[in-house]
Structures are given as C-alpha cells and as structure tokens.
Write a structure and sequence with these properties.
CATH class: Mainly Alpha
Mean pLDDT: 91
Radius of gyration: 13 Å
Order of helices and strands: HHHHH
CATH architecture: Orthogonal Bundle
Largest sheet: none
Structural class: mainly alpha
Oligomer: single chain
Number of helices: 5
CATH topology: N-utilizing Substance Protein B Homolog, Chain A
Shape: globular
Strand content: under 5%
Distance between the termini: 41 Å
C-alpha cells in the first residue's frame, strides 16, 4: 500500500462520508440526467465516478466543477471501458448545466 499524505486521506474520507450522506439525492439527479439510458445499464464504476463528481460540484465549494468533471473523466479513462469516458462526460455535462441553472 502506498503511503498517503494526511490531507489526501482526509479529503477522501470527506468525499466518502459526503457521498454516503447524499447518495439518494445524487442518484436521483444522475438518473434524471441519463439520456436514453436506464440506470441499471450504467456500470458500477461509472456510477460511482459520476456520484463523486456530482457531490464535488454541489457540495465542495473549493473544487471548480470543471476540475471535478475532468478528474472523473480521467479516472474513467484509466479504469473504465473504452466508451465510458464519453458517457461520463455527457452525463456530467448535463448535470453541470442542471446544477448551475438551479443556483
């Protein structure tokens, strides 16, 4: 296991707690943003990555939405299927517009 800086570990714990606390609301918003997809067709990795990015976009004020989106796409490029980054980008783009319209 790689050692991590305390700040990285703390931020990861904050994300996990936050996503868990807001999971139902995040999942509802993600399901609404799926275009021509049913929620059960979305892979576990893609769903989790979008959940974390959406949480950051809504609840973490010092992370710009573009950074949250870019990081999600990079994680998906590394660990997801070949078409997953494009899918994640599309869903996050719709969520971004939805989030910014409701502010």
């Amino acid at each position: 296991m790689c050692p991590s800086r305390p700040s990285v570990k703390s931020y990861a714990e904050t994300l996990i707690r936050g996503v868990c606390a807001h999971r139902k609301e995040l999942d509802r918003q993600i399901a609404e943003a799926l275009d021509k997809w049913s929620p059960d067709r979305v892979g576990y990795l893609e769903w989790a990555v979008v959940r974390v990015a959406l949480y950051e976009m809504i609840h973490v004020s010092d992370v710009p939405a573009a950074v949250a989106m870019n990081e999600a796409i990079e994680v998906t490029k590394r660990f997801g299927a070949d078409d997953a980054p494009r899918f994640v980008n599309g869903v996050l783009d719709r969520l971004f517009h939805s989030v910014t319209e409701n502010r």
